[in-house]
Amino acid sequence: MITVKDNPVKNTNNDKETQDVLLEEKPDRRLLSYVPDEDGLRSNHDRRGALSEDENGEIDYTLYQQEEKRGQRYLVDYDVTVEFAYLSGRKLLVGKAVDISTTGILLKMSPEDAEYIENAEQVKLNFVITPGSMPEGYEMKVKGLKAHCVRLLKRDDGTAFCGLEFIDTLAQYAAHKRQNYLLGASAFCLGIITLVIIMMRAESVVYFRFNRWLYLYSIIAATFLLSRYFFATFYRPVKIDPDYTPGVTVIIPCFNEENWIRRTIHSCINQDYPVDKLEVIVVDDHSNDHSVERIKEAIEEVKAADTERGSYHTDTRIRYVVQPVNKGKREAMAVGATEAQHELLVFVDSDSFLDPFAVRNIVQPFKDKEMGGVSGRTDVANTYTNALTRMQSVRYYIAFRIMKAAESYFDAVTCLSGPLSCYRRDLVLRYADAWLNQKFLGQKATFGDDRSMTNFILRHNRTAYQDTAVCATIVPNSYTVFLKQQMRWKRSWLRESLIAARYIWKKEPFMSLSFYMGLMVPIAAPIIVLYNLIYVPVMHRVFPVTFIVGMMLMALLMSMAQLFLRRSSTWLFGMWFCLYYEAVLLWQMPVAWFTFWKSTWGTRLTPADLAEMEKERLKKERKEEKKRHVPKK
After folding, report:
1. For the whole prediction, is pTM greater than 0.85?
2. What is the 3-state secondary structure of 358-385?
3. Tens-place pLDDT, residues 428-460
4. Of these four, 120, 218, 374, 493, which has the most CB atoms within 10 Å of its CB?
């Protein structure tokens, strides 16, 4: 497991710097390991196995992706106990795990111990997969996992490496040992929680005449939430058609992202996609750190990796643009759209990393000619850093897999998220001027570019969510930065939701009704919470048991959905997020109502942030100056 320092530019406060914990994949010896060779002499399919065919004889790209992911190895560092039969008894040896996949493990040990394992017909392994060393859902205690040695490498320094292949994959082991039970338990809990919520809302109908507004809100909130979970169960991503490969330009707007931009660029060019159909453009918005140097280095590395074969055409497929002055993220995105040569635009945030199959997956919904934009799924890259990042991991997964999936069922996703989204280029250019010059109540809109562009697209076209198009993004690991990010998001949500409310009624009726319920619930929530937790106990001397139970049930619903869908140990943090939302994040909404005009990001040093910091510095100096001149009594 590797620890990587977070970008210090993002931490614009005095919080203690936190080390981000990231999943560390074992690097391939080829930098462009997923890019198919144009000359056909060698492809990633040759190395990872031929494409599978389904029962109809058609290529099943989904199976190919699953097989590739099974063999992905992760660098680890924990002890493994190896048990096997020896003469009349059994022998126990201890090795150090070097890397692991769902199908096997590589152990470092002494040559003598390695020979014992090599000669054994079968061994049993005992070890603990620590959180963050493999993808979510695999963290567990492994006991008695059967394996056999497939290779042995001895070194001159007196060490040996023993490669072991599992008899059953880790996924099969987990399903047998615990995941089936977790699946059943979480499904049972989801059913009970849903039933109790429905019964409580039925009670609201009975008592509606005593306090119509309060009970109306509770009915609407429960209907909105449960309907999202309900329709999400019917969602299915569009399957891959291997022959459908429209031209794609990946655009990476960058500002002050020196720590992550190199990895982002590499993930965007290293895609399983035809080389003549994919290009990457990085637009640096006049960063004031070393981002431009990192961009140049990353592009040079990519081109150097292509010098041997020369069949990836990286000299023409990847380039960068540096803005002469900082103009904002929208301007950077618009520059990329203007420079693009292909029909589809994929926007990727500069601290987000694409799965090698992300581009191939995200373009599939565009087989529908009315499709205007598609959002991919965003996972959290630094999930296991601390409690805050775990909490965000659950929130991200439910927001995409439940909320966006439900909207996608009606082809009306209301926010094509910034970390990974795809648009038709002709539509982006059509709305570019209005998007760049957008104002709200006389104030220029400087953030919320993803929601804003989605609004332009959704007016006359469809928008969708593709769950199989995955990226991982870096989320704030300190509460100060997190709260600033959430405030910015709430301002843009409020602005764009009010704009969407003007036209969303033209869409599918139930989707429209759900949207308006989703708009009303968070806006009214602070008033409802104050009424139930302050007014009722003080004025009526009644403890709000029903309200607190309802709130806990909503939190449990999120946690159980995470456990059911992902079987991850992070499920408990779904409850923590809901409680934190009620205690802290909820109260940002009233502030957002009266500060929508603010242009600062809060999480990075944009010119607006620098101006605000300078303003605060001068204000502080004036106060200190006044204190020095106040006469002592």
Report:
1. yes
2. HHHHHCHHHHCCCEEEEEEEEEECCHHH
3. 999 999 999 998 877 787 788 999 999 999 999
4. 374
